[in-house]
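FORM 7B - TANDEM STRUCTURE REPORT

SECTION 1: FIRST PROTEIN
SEQUENCE AND TOKENS:
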Amino acid sequence: MLFCFYLGFTTQQSEVIVSALVKIVNTNLDMIYKDMVTKVQQEIALQQVMSHIGGVKKDMIILEKSEFSALRSENEVKISIFDLYHLFFIKDVKKWFVPKRIKLELQQIKKQVMDEITKVRADNKLNLNLEKSRVKELHSLNERKLLEMRTEIVELHAQQDRALTQTDRKIDTEVADLKTMLESHKLDNIKYLAGKISCGEIGQYFCKLSIDCIHKGHGSKEI
């Protein structure tokens, strides 16, 4: 306000100019803050995403371990049953007299058990491969989402930078216009003062000339 006062403006004019500048700056700042995201909000969003990804990875590891342990325990139980059967029956067949029909039934049971074990192993291997593929796909999906979020954050920063640049340019333009207006008013005031001083000097000259004429008239009459 003192700057405006020194340029020749009155107190009321200075207050109007300063109020206009404050409104312009506040409006531009409101427009910027409306589209901006604070650093704290960005960090919170990134922490939430990383926490979600960590939770998914942890769940996948636990699921993979639990399923693998269950399948392995099931296989061990089946293999143990077959081993007991083989130990207590097949090996003792030579020691005891066993009818041929029972031998055939035992061989069929043995074949069925072996087929079942082979089938279970194949199913387990297939399930493990499917689970690994699913885990890889989920990991790839999480990586893509994280990359998209990073891209969005970078784009948001770029938009904020562009908005700040435009605002700076607008403020510079308005300040330049205001300086031009102030210079114009200053020049008008100088012209006004110069004209006023010139008129006063001309009036003083005519007054002085009139007084001289009056004095000369009185002098001629006395002669």
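SECTION 2: SECOND PROTEIN
SEQUENCE AND TOKENS:
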Amino acid sequence: MAPATKSGQLVPQNHFVRIVSKTVDELEIEEVFARNTKGGGASRYNPVMLLKVMSALKNISLTEQKLKVPQINTHSSGKEKYEKANATFNDRNSYSKTDEDATFMRMKEDHMLNGQLKPGYNIQVGTENNFVIGYDVFPNPTDTRTFIPHLENVQKRLGCKFKFAIADAGYGSEENYDYLEENEITGIVKYTTYEKETKRSFKKKTFNTENWKYDAEQKEYTCPCGNPVPYRKTVTKKNKSGYLQTYEVYQCENCEGCPFRELCTKSEYGRVIQRNGHWLEQKAKVKELLSSEEYKTLMKKRSTECETVFGQTKGNLKFRRFHLRGKEKVGIEWGLLMLGYDFKQLIRLMNT
């Protein structure tokens, strides 16, 4: 039972149920109920009172529903946590709860041999004549996306423009080659499949489309079985950095019944080729450049410079993990380490 108010009434004077009761009473519908009552049977509930109760309950139901809707939209369980996590990602696929600037990556050191992911940073180092001239700390594991910002940062800090940029195959991409060409920097940078493509075994792979005959005028490939693979359409794709890549799509029309189909393609639609003409031109330039003995020598020099930094740091100094957390602090820690490395190189030169 509801507690009585100071005036002795159970329901306050300004409660909405009193308005409902008064409104129903003013309708004077007792006669309507009386005309439609057949009589007989068990005694019934007062129809006027039932109408009041139903009207009041309906109003209560609507009121509660209106109050619940904004609570669902603005105070749902875990919403604030998810919004914070989404903002912390910052174009990444993961982050560590113990160091939100760090991203989960597959490390070269895998003691469990299960490809375990660990939080870490991608450290980029620029060297010249065995001295570290610049470094950067990145949260993304892909080297191709660190090449341009690292190169720009080092040039900005030193106040100069490089004529050459030497890097390993992990940095070779269409976007990076375009950047080097636009900025008139000679890039001695292999691409990922460079070593594989320069071997004889690669050129003997029958079903590799780079070994197929291509007619530039007709815009048509010819498959190993002699069937034409004509041009279908052009598509444009944008990568995470916003760089646009254009592909020409070719599709074979006579894959049905081809004796080599199982060796050529698993697709139910037949063999489909995506040709990036600009990328193929870039790869041809890289092959031509690296065929020169001069550039081969420079490429070999890279392995004795950059790799030495990490070899000395990890192998001799036993520095295999950062002791601080956060990108800024990690940058300071690595910077002090590189400063010590350069001092060591300077002392070595002074003693020779």
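SECTION 3: OBSERVATIONS ON SECOND PROTEIN
The longest helix spans residues 47-74.
Residues 1-8 have pLDDT under 50 and may be disordered.

SECTION 4: SIGNATURE
Preparer initials: ____
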